[in-house]
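Tokens in:
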């Protein structure tokens, strides 16, 4: 009888309709954050949502390049020193190394240094000097840091560094995993401004916006299924630098310092958000020639939209009509 008493409540809970929670928060990770949880009960769904938000808060204190108190920023005040870093920061730094090497520098955390020059160009009304861009590009060929086997790291770069092209995906990953680990949770979605991770359940179908439309309410380019995985996008239609009468993409090629011109839109699906984010950024710079990198990345697929309106898909890309 005692065994039956234990089994019956669990059986009834699994057979009862799940509670579906959806919340939207403004100005989290620099964008709009959506959290969806499907759980046995409302209390368990709310507990999972809180776990996701707590994880975002924790990792923001590690990876936020805008907060002088973050671990990343504090480390950047100690160049040349061997500093013990948290496992989270080390994980993202190792990933940055892998992607920098895999792309021949098309992905680089030092791209932020070029952003400083283009922001100044907005203020002066003059594009950066060719020589200045070339000199900074040359400096970026040197490794920005050394990661030591004992969990310490030495920073070498004396120019701005940013990990946003990886950090948001990593934070979304960890938040979704924290929510799914809570008791009674069946499915989770964490969506930070279009960079999303879904775990459990039947997944979802995501509408891919046309990068030439400039509006969210117009018909999508296509629809792509995402299940127990991630999706990330990259594009230049809404953000950039106004220099005089010219408009330049915010996406900068770390190998030259010049804005990307040929790829207004990239969509990537991958097993995790960090990979999806890194690949989307890399393909924005590499263009169609980078699709081989998507094919070489386990579980990843990509769609590139070029300036002439062409649509170029990797081998594993699978999408539905709009």
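Residues out:
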């Amino acid at each position: 009888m005692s065994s039956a008493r234990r089994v019956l409540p669990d059986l009834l809970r699994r057979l009862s309709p799940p509670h579906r929670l959806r919340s939207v928060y403004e100005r989290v990770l620099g964008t709009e954050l959506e959290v969806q949880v499907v759980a046995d009960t409302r209390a368990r769904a709310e507990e999972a949502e809180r776990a996701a938000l707590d994880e975002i808060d924790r990792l923001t204190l590690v990876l936020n390049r805008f907060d002088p108190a973050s671990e990343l920023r504090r480390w950047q005040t100690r160049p040349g020193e061997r500093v013990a870093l948290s496992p989270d920061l080390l994980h993202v730094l190792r990933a940055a190394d892998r992607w920098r090497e895999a792309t021949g520098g098309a992905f680089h955390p030092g791209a932020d240094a070029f952003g400083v020059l283009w922001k100044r160009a907005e203020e002066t009304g003059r594009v950066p000097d060719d020589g200045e861009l070339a000199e900074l590009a040359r400096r970026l060929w040197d490794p920005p840091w050394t990661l030591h086997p004992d969990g310490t790291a030495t920073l070498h770069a004396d120019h701005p560094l940013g990990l946003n092209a990886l950090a948001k995906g990593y934070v979304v990953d960890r938040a979704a995993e924290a929510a799914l680990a809570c008791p009674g949770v069946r499915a989770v979605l964490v969506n930070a401004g279009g960079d999303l991770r879904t775990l459990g359940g039947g997944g979802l179908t995501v509408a891919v916006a046309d990068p030439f439309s400039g509006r969210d309410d117009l018909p999508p380019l296509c629809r792509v299924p995402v299940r127990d995985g991630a999706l990330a996008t990259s594009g230049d239609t809404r953000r950039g630098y106004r220099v005089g009468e010219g408009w330049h993409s915010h996406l900068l090629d770390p190998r030259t310092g010049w804005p990307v011109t040929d790829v207004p839109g990239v969509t990537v699906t991958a097993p995790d958000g960090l990979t999806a984010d890194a690949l989307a950024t890399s393909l924005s710079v590499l263009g169609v020639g980078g699709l081989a990198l998507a094919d070489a990345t386990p579980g990843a697929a990509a769609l590139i939209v070029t300036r002439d309106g062409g649509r170029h898909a990797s081998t594993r890309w699978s999408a539905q009509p709009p």
